[in-house]
Amino acid sequence: AGLAVLSRPMVELLFKRGQFDDYSVSVTAMALLFYSLGLVSCVLIKILVNAFYAMQDTRTPVKTATLCLGVNVILNLVFMWHLKIGGLALATTIAATVNACLLFAALSRRVGGIGSLGLKEIFLKTGIAVLVMTAVLKWCLVPLLAQALLDGSGAVGLLAAAIPGSAALYFGLCLAMKLGEARQFGRSIVRVIPGRYRRR
Questions:
Q1: N or C: which end of the chain has fewer CB within 10 A?
Q2: How high does pLDDT run on average in the chain?
Q3: What is the reported pLDDT for 195?
Q4: How far are the Cα atoms of 53, 83, 105 from residue 34, in angstroms, in the given order?
């Protein structure tokens, strides 16, 4: 979500100079936006494929990957003419999402009970945290970044503060909603950091 919202300011700050003009910024930011939307699906594919491998099933991941390869090729041809490199990124994201959904459905049929593992609560709470974080970035930080880029000063500091700041906001919201995974992560950090200082 952070990559999606900050795609244009990041690309403009890092690359806009010389022959890398406004058009180059726009198409590159579009590609980054669409690729960022597919990150969750790519992570899910990795996890779900390992689950099938653990059950000695290599056919299902290969079948879904082959099907989604065809989907990717078709969507590339459809989107590339209108969205350029952004269309290629969008096609990849859609194909990855289809792949993740197919693998999840197949695994649910195979083992059953996946929906009872608290996934609905996790997706609901993380979704709320993402929406709040995205709103803060979109309506508070992006206008400041746009003005800083226009003025030619301060953009680096704002962006450097935005990335850890938005991550801290997301994590804090998850903790506030008593999300178990966030609490476990927080306890792990608390245990690890003092141990490192003691070893030093």
A1: C
A2: 90
A3: 59
A4: 29, 11, 24
- The answer for 118, left when phi > 0, alpha when psi is -120 to 50, beta otherwise, is left
- The pLDDT of residue 56 is above 70: yes
pLDDT > 90: percent of the chain: 68
What are the residue ranges of helices labelled H in the chain?
2-5, 7-15, 22-37, 39-54, 59-83, 85-111, 119-136, 142-151, 155-176, 180-199
Asked whether the predicted pLDDT for residue 191 surpasses 90, the reply is: no
Which CA distances in Å does 131 have to 169, 181, 183?
Answer: 11, 18, 20
Give tens-digit pLDDT for 132-181: 999 999 998 999 998 998 888 888 999 999 889 999 999 999 999 988 88
- For residue 91, give the nearest of 112, 69, 107 by alpha carbon: 69
- State the CB neighbour count (10 A cutoff) for residue 192: 9
Q: Would you tell me how many other CB atoms lie within 10 Å of the CB of residue 22?
A: 9
CA dihedral (140, 146, 150, 152) in degrees, to 10, reads 80
Given the structure tokens 């491998």, which residue do they identify? Answer: 53
